[in-house]
Dynamin-related protein 1C (Panicum virgatum), 612 residues
Amino acid sequence: MATMGSLIGLVNRIQRACTVLGDHGGGAGGEGSLWEALPSVAVVGGQSSGKSSVLESIVGRDFLPRGSGIVTRRPLVLQLHKTDGGHEYAEFLHAPRKRFTDFAAVRKEIADETDRITGKTKAISNVPIHLSIYSPHVVNLTLIDLPGLTKVAVEGQAESIVQDIENMVRSYVDKPNCIILAISPANQDIATSDAIKLARDVDPSGDRTFGVLTKLDLMDKGTNAVDVLEGRQYRLQHPWVGIVNRSQADINKNVDMLSARRKEKEYFESSPEYGHLAHKMGAEYLAKLLSQHLEAVIRAKIPSIIAMINKTNDEIEAQLDKLGRPIGGDAGAQLYTILDMCRAFDRVFKEHLDGGRPGGDRIYGVFDNQLPAALKKLPFDRHLSMQNVRKVISEADGYQPHLIAPEQGYRRLIDSSLSYFKGPAEASVDAVHLVLKELVRRSIAATEELKRFPTLQSDIAAAANESLERFREDGRKTVLRLVEMEASYLTVEFFRKLPTEPEKAADKNTPVSDRYQDNHLRRIGSNVSSYINMVCETLRNTIPKAIVHCQVKEAKRNLLNRFYAHVGSKEKKQLSAMLDEDPALMEKRDALVKRLELYKSARNEIDSVAWK
């Protein structure tokens, strides 16, 4: 089995590495993070409960800021590392290259680092300070000192400070792997203890809670806390521990913590009330008790920690696959990567067109809604009005009016009517072109493999849009040719089948010549309108076919063909420039690689230490 404290020392190192890599969030660790999976001890208590003094007693050093009101304004993650000998020293995560051997300087650094985030106010911050202490006088342990719970805001504090502190404390103690060290002063009713009230709320069974009574020496004469310490007044699953902190006089006299420990031990051994409990009272006993329990909890959690690490490793590997692995340095590998990216983009683009992704349906919308609506709005009623028909027929006849049917007039009316179809035809080409351009943009954004290469993204977008412009021009020429074909050769059979019944009788009061002229012109306009409607139905079907053939099908088949040929002729230096990665993604991939290395190393170390 692992030696005492070896697992805790390992967990300390892993937690520190997690913090360096940012693998933690609010509370003791981010949701699903390795930090969160590793057990630690949160120190909870009301303001002036003696919380800081308990920590200093456990460490054996006077190193925490003191004062009235709220002193701890940021969580302090305190990692204790037992050494075999040598000097004691401390290190802050925010100052990794600086080693503190003067613990008065540690106190000042905590105060300064607190002010750096919160300012010189009484505000709080959930951004933790990380401190490691290396000493032969400590046990391996991770403690998290949290701001003291309070019931009222004082001058200079926001009204929300009471709830803000409780929310911060809860963000740590709510986690199932957090051991709660609930500090309560013995000279107050335990039923009103802020720490016990919160611990009962988040840990009703008491499995995770250790109760600590401070200020036993300050209780009223004739009273004692034996009922609490022996678990009769408030029972926990773990034993209560009594602590006697340094008095203010001792602090003023700079009595060191090791002397204070000896004085505390003498107090319990000589006390008539607590003498029978002396062997399990005091800061030294508390530190060993917590260390033993933390070791046991870690060992019990090893299977779930390993499972969590394995699951996270798989997730990181998948993320790295998604971001893309590092690229080889030779031109062949670079060209292969570029072509692979192009194929990935092309695959997504086709999915948009074919319905696997949204967007392609908008092309059908152009054909089914936009084109018919545009055709319906064409001004044929005005163009084929009696007045305009008379004008066109007269101009076509010239000096000699037509004898039976105005052949030239018919042709002029039809030609001029057919020219109106060019607008909707070209508009449909442009509308589909815009849809295809938008699908190119969406496809580039949706191609995960491309996200790491902003330059290649731009190159592919430019090449795809250049191809779409060519396809649009082909589509425009084709649909205009369809319209021109209708004007080039009229369907004679249509006119041969037109009814030839005699004109209906007109008003007897209208002159005979005018009656014939109006009815004759009305019939011409009606015949041309019928023919135009027939052509309209034909174009309504053939324009979409031409657009799909020239633009959509070509985009599916040949969108990047010219780009492939262009890339194939580039030198290594030019290929490297195209694969210039987004610095943010490079940074993200590097962070993932480091995190993966950390998790793999943690798994191997836990395996090697846990079962020795």
Observations:
- Strands lie at 40-45, 76-82, 89-92, 95-100, 129-135, 141-145, 178-185, 209-214, 241-242.
